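Budget justification aside, the reviewers requested a transparent look at the raw inputs and outputs of the sequence design task funded under Objective 1. We therefore reproduce one unedited record. The lines immediately below are the structure tokens for a 356-residue chain.
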């Protein structure tokens, strides 16, 4: 997701993602290091979830990389660089090493804070915090990015995070400064058209947004309210609050992720130093699972969940990565050896598999 780091009630950019299921050979973890100006790469041990650095890691990025995302094919990695205001794009080698794609880095707007790819891997969406808009890029066969016609598209105040529904029909943006979510229809070219009832009210300072794997629900973490706003998605992409929304979190929820089964929501609570886990009800309502919240490192900034592996990884500001086994009931158990060392201020996490 994005993304800023928040200390004592004010925010500094951070981003984010986490991972779930049984890893396959050639499975890799990528971490954007905000102060390190680089990306750490690790091979995931397929028997226990431990991490081994990829040769050549870390790989150079721009100034203050804040978000990392992986192409659905596993062939490309993209990093939003906050201060240099661009996107670094890489090809993924069979050993997990990263090589810049032709033309990288690609210009973004002012202070890019997050990026997301559609499930088909055709488009990349980047929120620009200061400009208040979303840049949209077509993804070429070689991983290069080309700005589409009409880009960037206006969002709300301080767009901090973006999520795309599984069908690639709708985009949702958390607007930190205007306390709402912008909702857009996506046409075949990737262009965004605001929905008629957009924006939709959220809590105070929504910082992260996610769509569940069924495309039925949207969840937004409200940083100042210490809550999650939950919505059902209508046929036209519009949002309606689910029963009981908003739901309480820990202190300063900064990132939200949804497991691949669509059963659980994971939230990194920055000032509580833990991760809350919730079960998703049939109506989209959230209930805390047994043992939640689960301890993390100092100032956890992001959570990501792998659709294949039984592991979860959390980026902590103390230059560490917390790693967990994920049970079928959503419970997190630390992996032996966790936490693992990262670069300076790891802020966003994503997974890839070796290209075929």
């Amino acid at each position: 997701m994005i993304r800023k780091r928040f200390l004592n009630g004010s925010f500094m950019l951070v981003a984010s993602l986490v991972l779930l299921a049984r890893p396959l050979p050639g499975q890799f973890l990528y971490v954007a290091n905000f102060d390190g100006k680089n990306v750490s790469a690790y091979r995931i041990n397929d028997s226990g979830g431990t991490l081994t650095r990829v040769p050549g890691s870390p790989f150079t990025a721009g100034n203050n990389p804040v978000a990392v995302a992986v192409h659905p094919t596993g062939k490309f990695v993209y990093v939003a660089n906050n201060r240099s205001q661009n996107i670094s794009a890489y090809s993924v080698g069979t050993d997990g090493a990263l090589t810049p794609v032709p033309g990288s880095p690609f210009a973004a707007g002012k202070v890019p804070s997050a990026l997301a790819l559609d499930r088909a891997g055709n488009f990349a969406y980047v929120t620009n915090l200061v400009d208040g808009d979303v840049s949209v890029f077509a993804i070429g066969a070689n991983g290069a990015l080309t700005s589409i016609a009409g880009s960037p598209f206006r969002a709300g105040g301080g767009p901090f995070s973006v999520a795309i529904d599984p069908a690639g029909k709708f985009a949702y943006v958390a607007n930190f400064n205007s306390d709402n979510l912008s909702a857009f229809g996506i046409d075949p070219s990737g262009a965004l058209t605001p929905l008629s009832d957009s924006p939709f009210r959220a809590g105070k300072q929504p910082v992260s947004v996610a769509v569940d794997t069924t495309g039925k629900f949207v969840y937004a973490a409200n940083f100042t309210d210490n809550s999650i706003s939950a919505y059902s998605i209508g046929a036209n992409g519009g949002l309606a609050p689910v029963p009981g929304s908003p739901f309480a979190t820990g202190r300063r929820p900064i990132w939200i992720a949804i497991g691949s089964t669509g059963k659980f929501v994971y939230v990194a609570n920055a000032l509580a130093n833990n991760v809350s886990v919730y079960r998703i009800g049939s109506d989209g309502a959230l209930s805390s699972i047994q043992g939640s919240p689960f301890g993390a490192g100092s100032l956890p900034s992001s959570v990501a969940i792998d659709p294949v592996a039984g592991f979860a990884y959390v980026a902590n500001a103390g230059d560490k990565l917390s790693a967990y086994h994920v049970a079928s009931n959503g419970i997190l158990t630390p992996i032996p050896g966790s936490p693992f060392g990262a670069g300076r201020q790891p802020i966003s996490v994503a997974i890839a598999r070796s290209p075929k």
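Residues 1-26 have pLDDT under 50 and may be disordered. Residues 324 and 334 are 4 Å apart (CA to CA). Computational costs for records of this kind are itemized in the attached budget.
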